Amino acid sequence: MHRFFAPDIATTLALPEEESRHCVRVLRLVEGDEIEVIDGDGTLYHCRVALAHAKHCAIEILSQELCPPHWGSKIMIAVAPTKNLDRIEWMAEKCTEMGIDRITPLLCRHSERKVLKTERLHKILVAAMKQSLKAQLPQLDELTPIKNVIDEPSEAQRFIAYCDESLPRNERRSLAQVYDPNRDAMVMIGPEGDFDPMEVEAALKAGFVPVTLGDSRLRTETAALMAVATMHTLKDRNKS
User: Fold this and answer.
1) Which spans in 53-118 are helix H?
2) For residue 170, what pLDDT is reported?
3) What is the pLDDT, as a whole number, of residue 168?
4) Which of 5, 118, 120, 163 has the fewest CB atoms within 10 Å, counting from its CB?
5) What whole-number distance in Å separates Cα of residue 30 and Cα of residue 51?
6) Segment among 67-76, 137-146, 215-224 with least mean pLDDT
7) Which domains does the chain show, CATH number per domain?
8) Could you tell me if 140 and 122 are in contact, meaning their C-beta atoms sit under 8 angstroms apart?
């Protein structure tokens, strides 16, 4: 069944213009056809097309159900966007497909990208949410200075992953060894030039736990995916 995204569906009883156009013009759905609509907050609506209009497709809600994230406690990534925008867009798409609650683009001292427009990223997250049959849209923050992320009050586990050999290494442990799958968690991934030593020092003083994501030197976007995949694997193992 076709699935659409409409954050205000419960009050508007209509699809947004872009979704209406896709429903009516592209998919050629007509009055009486049944569709699924998600609001991005975890609710799935079973609906019927009431008025097949390409700009304002009205719907009738037949039933609704809560579809909370299947992974339980929150998974969050704070990652410095790469110079090549395609790579960070690919990462965001794949993290959403696997399951993630929050993506925070980081602005670091060594960041290759100092400006990030999130409109396109948001659309990619919406498409990935629909494609992977989820009802919860990840929170996507604007580009955020690393100091703000470090200073943000949080009860979650907070990890920082880095690979620079000049930075403190003897306290690092594998993320798989220290991550508690029953608790919310954030992993912070640095830019292509890695974190500045002062950024690492500030994070460690704030309670971030230094971790490694394996023996390979990973690209920024690969490291983020490795972190998310590791957390999901441990959550799945914890269920069995």
Assistant:
1) 85-98
2) 65
3) 58
4) 120
5) 8
6) 215-224
7) 3-66 (2.40.240.20), 75-239 (3.40.1280.10)
8) yes
